[in-house]
Amino acid sequence: MKDSVNQDLQFCKDHKQKKLAVLIDPDKIDSGAVSLLVDNAVNAQVDYLFIGGSLLVDDSFSSCVEYIKSSCDIPLIIFPGSIFQMSPKADAIFFLSLISGRNADLLIGQHVLAAPLLRSMKIEVMPTGYMLVDGGAPTTVSYISNSQPIPRDKPPIAVCTAMAGEMLGHRVIYMDSGSGAKYSISQEMVKAVSDNISVPLVIGGGIRSPEEAAKISRAGAELIVVGNAFERDPNLVFEMSEAVHACSQLLPNKA
Ligand code: 1GP
Question: What 3-state class would DSSP assign to 16?
């Protein structure tokens, strides 16, 4: 099984490198908008493209994967809202276990159904502890997952949950306040979690400005994910990419 995205993210954690992912929800944008966003992502040197959504109401997922793979070399990672969002053409998939919730089906049930299909697809599978954090407004993901998010003012709950996730073998911790959240995850919570895990930390949900992305990167996130803000303004990708990458520490020369 391939391991390159996982290794890349672990390198970021170990060497304080910061990366940006653009989330494409095929349900929310049309093909013209996808094309512009992908072009901007290439020109802005975005590190990853994510595809997926909590609720897809049409069948554009597979064609969108194919379009993206045929138009750029940025690694495409599936951020699945359900087992219907899988494709052998993507580079990797987050194998999300909703460790902030107590819904057995999303902790292990759907994974049992997905496992044989994923094995036959031969894409990189990334065991991921997925944690929903309250973003100040009900989100589709919390409704669909039928789970309660971690309160945003309780970093210790997030820390213990992330530590347990790592101990269970998850190789990435992904904290999300949900697409379109009112508030992104606090720097305090990001720092507390980052300081207590040795696997990479992905943060998404409600990040709207380059300043906010930079603060969260500096607090300890290795990978920042933005969806909504780029749907509204695809040109924001440039500033956001610069702001996130500027938070990377300089690597020593390998002379
Ligand atoms: C991915 O849910 C996020 O983790 C994306 O959130 O659409 O609010 O950027 P936004």
Answer: coil
